[in-house]
Amino acid sequence: MRHTARNAAVQALLQVEENEGYSNLVLDKVLKAFQLERRDSALTSILFYGVLEKKITLDFYLQHCLKAPEKKMNAAVEMTLRCAAYQILFLDKLPDSAVVNEAVETVKELGKTSSAGFVNAVLRTLLRRKKEIILPTGNDPVSLSVRYSVPASLISFWQEAYGAEDTERILKAFLERAPLYIRSNPLKASFQKLQSSFSDSGIDLKPCGFPECAGILSDCGAPQSLPQFEQGLFHVQDISAQLICEILNPQPGETVCDCCAAPGGKTFTAAEMMQNKGKLIAFDLYRGRVGLIRDGAQRLGLDIVTARRNDALLGFPDLEPVDRMLCDVPCSGYGVIRRKPEIRYKDVSSVSELPTIQYGILQNASKVVKSGGVLVYSTCTLNPAENNLVAERFLKENDGFIPMKIELPASIQRRSKEADHMFTMMPFSGASDGFFAAAFRKK
Ligand SMILES: C[S@@+](CC[C@H](N)C(=O)[O-])C[C@H]1O[C@@H](n2cnc3c(N)ncnc32)[C@H](O)[C@@H]1O
C-alpha cells in the first residue's frame, strides 16, 4: 500500500471503528507506521478528524448517491467513500477529479478492486448532485443528527435532560475547534515570563484571566515538543479541568488525595496551587497510567506528589485522613466530544453501569476525609445520571456530609435549576469542555 495521507486516514478510521482505542492514540500509531512528510501528516489528521466529526452528515450525502442505499457496504470501501466525500464537501485542497481518482486507487490497494467502479460512480454522482442535496432543517433529533453529526439517540437524551434550546447550543459548541489551554507552572516561571519566552519563539500565549495561570496557545504544533514543556514551565489542561481544581481549592501544607488521577493534569494543578508544600497522594487503577503521573510531576518539579496504583472501588487501605479529596471519576466523556469526536457514537445505553461505579468510588473516598475536610466529585460528561443524581444520592445516604457552595467567577453562568453545591459547565458557557462538579464538606 502506498504511504499517502488518504490511505493513512482510512487505516486509522478503520481501527477506530473496530474499537482499537481513543482517536488520538490510534492516529499517532498509524502516523508512526506511515512515516509521512509533515504536510501529508497534517492532511491525514484533517481527514481523520473531519470524517469522525462529520460521519452522519457525510453518510446522508452518500446515501443520496447510492442506487441501493439499504445494501450493506464493505467497511474499507465505506471509509474510503467517507474520506473522499469529506474532501469534496468540506475541503478545497485537491481538485475534485483527483479526489475521485485517489479514492479509486485506495480501494484497489485495500484489495477491493471489484469495488473500484462503484466508488468512482458514487463519487461522480456526489460531484454532480452535491448542490441539490439539502440537509434537513427541522429541530427534531433526526434532522439535528444529520446537521450536527451526533446520533439522534444522544440528542433526544440531551433534550430530555437539558431542554431543546441548550441541546442545540451544546451541538453548536461541539462544532468549534477546542482551544489549546495550558497552565503555566508558577513554581518555575510567572505567566508573563512564560508568555515572553513563547513570544521570543514566535508563539502566541493569551491569558484567560481566570484562573490566573491559564492561557491559550496558538500556532505552536505539538506542545509536548516545545522546549518550555521539556523545562516543566507548563502543562496542557482544559480550562474546565482548571476550574475543578479551583473548586477543590487545595492549600499549601494540606494533605490532599486525587483518587482517580491519571494522566495527572488535576494533580499537577493542585500541587502547584499548594506551592509544592504538603502532601498530594495521586492514585490510579492502572500501573502504566500511574507512570504518567510520576513523569509529569517530575518534569514540573512537583515533589509533594506521590503516585501509586490503587483500586478506589476497594477503598484506601493505607491512606491517612485527608484535608481534601478529589474524585474525578471515570465517565462516559460526553463533555469532551470536541477533543475525542468518536465519543459521540458511544451508545447512551452502554454507559448505564457507570453511576454504580462512580457512586462506589465516591462513597469509599468519603471515608478518608477528615472532619471539616472537603470532598469534590467531578466528571467530564453531560449526563445527569452520572452527575447530579450521583451527588444527590451521596448527600441522601451520607448525613456526615453537608453541601458546600461552589463559588464561580462572574464570567461563568450557573445553570438555574441546580443546587449551588453542584455545577454543570456547558461547553457553550465559556469555550471549555463540558463538565460537572459537586462539593461537600465533612461535618
Ligand atoms: C477522568 S480520568 C482522570 C483524569 C485526571 N483526573 C486528570 O485530570 O488528568 C479517570 C481515571 O480514573 C481511573 N480509574 C478508573 N477506575 C478506577 C478505579 N476503580 N480506581 C482508581 N482509578 C480508576 C482511570 O484509569 C482514569 O485514569
UniProtKB/TrEMBL annotation:
User: Its Enzyme Commission number?
Assistant: 2.1.1.176
Please name the CDD domains in this protein's record. AdoMet_MTases
Compartments where found: Cytoplasm
Predominant location category: cytoplasm
- A single GO BP annotation from the record? methylation
Can you provide one Gene Ontology molecular function annotated for this UniProt record? methyltransferase activity
Q: What class of enzyme is it?
A: transferase
Residues engaged in binding S-adenosyl-L-methionine: C260, A261, A262, P263, G264, G265, K266, D284, D311, D328
Active site: residue positions: C380
One Pfam family it belongs to: Methyltr_RsmB-F
Q: Which residue numbers delimit the SAM-dependent MTase RsmB/NOP-type domain?
A: 170-443
Reaction(s) the record says it catalyses: cytidine(967) in 16S rRNA + S-adenosyl-L-methionine = 5-methylcytidine(967) in 16S rRNA + S-adenosyl-L-homocysteine + H(+)
Keyword set for this entry?
Cytoplasm, Methyltransferase, RNA-binding, rRNA processing, S-adenosyl-L-methionine, Transferase
Give the family, as the similarity comment puts it.
Answer: Belongs to the class I-like SAM-binding methyltransferase superfamily. RsmB/NOP family.
Entry function: Specifically methylates the cytosine at position 967 (m5C967) of 16S rRNA.
Q: What is this protein identified as?
A: 16S rRNA (cytosine(967)-C(5))-methyltransferase
The organism is Neglectibacter timonensis
